[in-house]
Amino acid sequence: MKIFSDTQFSDLALGLLEHEIEALGHELIFPHELQTSVLAQGADDPSFTDAEIAFGQPDEKSVLTNDNLEWVHLTSAGYTRYDTPKFRAAAKARGLILTNSSSVYAEACAEHVFAFMLAQCRQLPWALSSRVASGTEEWLELRNAAPLLRDQQVLILGYGAIATRLAAMLKPFGNTVVALRRHPRGDEVVKTIALDQLDSALAKADHVVNILPENEGSRGFFSAARFAAMKEGAVFYNIGRGATVDQDALAAALGSGDLAAAWLDVTTPEPLPDDHPLRGLANCYITPHTAGGQRAESEALVVHFLGNLRKFTAGEELVDRVM
Predict the structure, then answer these.
(1) Which residue among 82, 90, 208, 294 sits deepest, i.e. has the most Cβ atoms within 10 Å of its Cβ?
(2) What is the mean pLDDT of residues 201-215?
């Protein structure tokens, strides 16, 4: 089969991909220009018309016009640009399969949130910027400002691979973990609620972790009303998508002191401009969409794809299938 790949992988990952594709009897096709980010949308390319499998971030319009294409495997966990009624309908009509790389990023993203939570509880930003002497008033204030993570309530919005790993990391701390899921299935490892129970859960949670994907139903999901429903002094985390949050409403909640802090790995736009209100708040901490990053990321993406390729050719169920 002809496999189109538009991502610029490391030399080691590319060598592995080329070797395995040749060994399996397939052919690799590359565009004129490779994407250096696993999040960037690939451009339309003439060579894509021959592709039967796409690995990367192919242009969604090109996907819909390529009748040869059978399967798209994304190098990201997110799939916003493909998550539209038009694309879903076309994929269903054609039998087109779409998988992502959630399994690759779950551990890194969960660790990132976990690090955020520990940094917040241990007051690390304040402590790292302080040079106070022991016994002073500020020293005592800093020590007394650090709650234990143990026995706190955590609400996770979006139950998938990342939420599952985060819940496992929190288990030794004795936290009460609740997850919001659009359609609870009953097989979740934590208590799972539906949307009509969200306000009640927000009012109890010490930590609210947003892992929602971006789609028509989630844009602006965290509105002023939802921030107002949160427990006073709660902490908000976002590693889902920036567009799911009303950032002006978040800035207002942080500025008023209703929320203790926010830790964000995603914003709209990215990077957030220096003059944005969130940038000027001492209780808002932003990392530049690096939660999923990890050493040997390219190799992990290629190994994940190759595993699914073997399943695809064997007619088996693919890992991380979203459509």
Answers:
(1) 208
(2) 96
Give dist(CA 321, CA 298) in Å, integer: 20
pLDDT at 164 over 90: yes
User: In this predicted structure, what is the pLDDT of residue 88?
Assistant: 94
Q: Which residues contact 43 (CB under 8 A, 6 or more apart)?
A: 31, 33, 59
DSSP letters spanning 73-102: EESSS--GGG-SHHHHHHHHHHT-EEE--H
Q: Look up residue 62 and give its two tokens.
A: 């090109």
| Residue 321 annotated in active site | no
241 is catalytic: yes
- The active-site residue, picked from 33, 138, 141, 270, is 270
> Which tokens belong to 292?
């999923």
- So what's the pLDDT on residue 156? 98
> In the structure, what pLDDT confidence band is assigned to residue 187 with cuts at 50, 70 and 90?
confident
CA distances from 300 to 17, 87, 108, 313 (A): 11, 28, 12, 20
- CA 49 – CA 62 distance, rounded (Å): 8
- What's the Cα-to-Cα distance from 288 to each of 41, 118, 132, rounded to whole Å? 18, 19, 30
Query: Encoding tokens for residue 310?
Result: 């073997």
Reply yes or no on whether 304 is catalytic: no
The whole-number pLDDT of residue 35 equals 86
What's the rounded Cα separation, in Å, for the pair 286 and 279? 8
From the list 241, 297, 299, 304, the catalytic residue is: 241
Mean pLDDT of the chain: 95
Instruction: Evaluate if pTM is beyond 0.90.
Output: yes
Copy the structure tokens of residue 105: 């990023």
Alpha carbons 109 and 156: distance in angstroms, whole number: 13
